[in-house]
Design a protein that fits this description.
Blueprint: H1 2-30, H2 49-55, H3 61-64, H4 72-104, E1 110-119, E2 126-133, E3 140-149, E4 153-160, E5 163-176, E6 178-185, E7 192-199, E8 204-211, E9 214-215, H5 222-238, E10 244-247, H6 251-254, E11 261-271, E12 284-290, E13 298-299, E14 310-319, E15 326-333, E16 341-349, E17 359-364, E18 382-391, E19 398-399, E20 407-412, E21 426-434, E22 446-452, E23 455-458, E24 469-478, E25 488-494, E26 502-506
Length: 516
């Protein structure tokens, strides 16, 4: 029976195939093609509600949502740049895919994996609308609605057991609404350090897949399975709050260093200084500052007609990087007319200091930083200073900005005993971000003034605006914790022309209590 069944099966297959081909050929030759009718076009006001609902998915977002803006100029830019973007993106895909393919060569009898053809086609993506979101952070948030019905030609060749298997991607369509965040904004081109991309909703992805010339996606049930799998995998990787971060600039070049401690400097005295005045004396004073800082240098008092001055004056400098920063000391001769002559200078790296230990330095003054210069061997006198580095404690307090207030942060430094000489010192850092709806009677050139403990700080002036953005940060040295104290902030406007008057455009008072 088994033999006869096999024989009948072979006979039936041999008869059925030619018979089926003959019937298909006859139907193809003698069947009449249907006439293709022109689509009916009607104005929108003639369509009923059901027809309008069918059209909604195809209407651009800038029509449906007022928050989205029309960006025809950007689409025109993408169209003109697409041939070059195609080559650049494909080159990036190749470079990223090669190491991934190399991991599978030699496994599962795979001999080689390579792209036979890689092109994104001639149809670029289209942006149907763009939304710009405003935040209180130092960032720019964009939400474009992207649709791409492309004609890519991507052919992947897999060599398996001496067989050449070709896989081709066809008719790719992607509908997505990504959120693109450029942050942080920095004063270095291209003015942002990182691009953060996330998806606000699951994307719509449709494509065809051809393997060895056959439509692989035509297998029943496979199309829906692939669609769900792609959406699930993409959503698990990039659906908000998951993000993809693309670094643009080196973090080391754009990182804003925060204060980490305070350098206590005591300028004690100087000895045997050079004679710069006609009468054989000098009027010395010391100017000191830390490298990498834009703050004005600290200055001692002027000692008139004295070549061996004693100051015993104390200063505090903000330290941001004790391993690389250097204290610059410059002794100058004060002159009533003209520039002040330099008597000598010296440098002290902060890495020579031990936290909380006072160290005395008695240094020979140099003419300049070029140490091997023979002129530096000339005796220019000595300077004596005492330095103490006090780092902030790790649990420094930071108070974030409420939506209706000002930024404020404060720090103290660690101390082993309450009786330490620097136990009460610290740093108060105040960030003034901006103001809204400020208006003067005659002009709008606002700037902010911050007053704390009799010390005044001013932001830069923004011309002709009611919503200034300053983003300025100020530091106040603290001898004692500012318990139950207040910061006075006011916004003023100043004429930019020839005038001797300064007019307040709006007075914003915000009182805050800071605790160490």
């Amino acid at each position: 029976m088994g033999f006869f069944s096999s024989l009948l099966g072979i006979f039936g297959f041999g008869i059925g195939v030619p018979f089926g081909l003959l019937i298909g050929f006859i139907l193809f030759i003698y069947s009449r093609p249907k006439t293709v009718q022109e689509p009916m076009t009607r104005p929108l006001y003639q369509l009923d509600s059901s027809a309008l609902l069918d059209l909604l998915p195809d209407i651009p977002l800038w029509v449906k949502c007022p928050d989205y803006e029309r960006v025809d100029w950007l689409n025109k830019f993408v169209i003109d740049m697409w041939p070059y973007l195609d080559k650049a993106v494909c080159a990036t895909i190749r470079s990223m895919a090669e190491p991934i393919f190399a991991e599978y060569i030699g496994k599962f009898q795979i001999e080689a994996i390579e792209f036979d053809n890689l092109s994104l086609g001639t149809l670029p993506p289209e942006i149907h609308g763009l939304k710009v979101c405003e935040t209180n952070e130092n960032e720019l948030v964009l939400e474009p609605a992207v649709r791409w019905a492309g004609n890519p030609n991507i052919v992947l060749v897999l060599k398996l057991l001496s067989l050449r298997i070709t896989v081709q991607l066809l008719d790719l369509q992607i509908f997505a609404t990504p959120r693109i965040t450029l942050k942080p904004l920095v004063p270095t081109l291209p003015c942002f350090a990182t691009v953060v991309v996330s998806l606000l909703e699951k994307p719509e992805v449709d494509f065809g897949l051809s393997i060895l010339g056959g439509d692989f996606m035509a297998i029943p049930g496979l199309y829906q399975f692939v669609q769900k799998t792609i959406k699930r995998q993409v959503a698990s990787l990039y659906l908000w709050p998951q993000t993809l971060e693309i670094p643009i600039l080196d973090p080391a070049t754009v990182a804003v260093k925060k204060p980490v401690g305070i350098l206590h400097v005591k300028v004690v005295r100087a000895q045997n200084l050079l004679k710069k005045d006609i009468l054989g004396t000098s009027d010395p004073y010391v100017k000191l500052n830390l490298t990498g800082e834009r703050l004005p240098a600290k200055k001692t008092t002027i000692k008139k007609r004295n070549l061996n001055p004693e100051w015993n004056e104390k200063f505090k400098l903000i330290v941001k990087d004790p391993q690389s920063q250097v204290l610059q000391l410059e002794v100058l001769d004060w002159d009533k007319v003209g520039t002040h002559d330099r008597l000598g200078m010296q440098f002290i790296p902060l890495k020579l200091l031990t936290p909380y230990e006072t160290k005395e330095f008695k240094l020979d003054l140099l003419k300049h930083t070029y140490i091997i210069d023979p002129q530096n061997k000339k005796q220019r006198g000595k300077i004596v200073v005492e330095l103490t580095y006090a780092p902030f404690r790790e649990d420094s307090i930071t108070t974030d900005v409420p939506q209706d207030g000002y930024g404020r942060k404060e720090s103290g430094f660690d101390r082993p005993l309450d009786s330490e000489v620097f136990s009460g010192a610290g740093l108060l850092s105040v960030s003034v971000l901006g103001a809204e709806d400020v208006e003067g009677e005659r002009h709008n050139n606002p700037y902010a003034v911050v007053l704390f403990r009799g010390e005044t700080k001013k932001t830069k002036m923004i011309h002709r605006t009611r919503d200034p953005l300053w983003n300025d940060e100020f530091q106040f040295m603290l001898e004692e914790p500012p318990l139950n104290e207040k910061i006075h902030i006011k916004v003023m406007s100043k004429r930019t022309g020839i005038s001797f008057r300064s007019k307040v455009c709006n007075f914003l008072h915000s009182y805050s209590t800071f605790h160490l």
